[in-house]
Amino acid sequence: MRLVTVRRATMRPHAWCMDAIELRAYRHTIETVNSQLEKMGSERLYARTNTGFELKVYATLIALICTNTN
Question: Which ranges in 1-70 belong to alpha helices (H)?
């Protein structure tokens, strides 16, 4: 069991918590991309082989990149 004290303004963050703090800046972007991939149907990629699945994933990512470029 890990006991975690209430963090005050004068305390330094815990070392194991730094990853969550660093990812906080990118969370909106990550959630947006995940939402766009879900709308494009990335959850329903059916393939018979691993190579075919990889090809479909790459094609979906390329389509997302082309959609988001300004």
Answer: 18-23, 27-39, 50-68
Q: What angle do CA 59, 61, 39 make, to 5 degrees?
A: 100
Q: How far apart are CA 64 and CA 69, in angstroms?
A: 9
- Cβ-contact 22, 7 below 8 angstroms: no
Q: What is the pTM of this model?
A: 0.54
Any idea what DSSP says for residue 25?
A: G
| Exposure string for 20-53, b = 16+ CB within 10 A, e = fewer | eeeeeeeeeeeeeeeeebeeeebeeeeeeeeeee
Domain boundaries, the chain: 15-68
Give the mean pLDDT per block of 10 residues along the chain (70 residues). 67 65 76 85 86 90 84
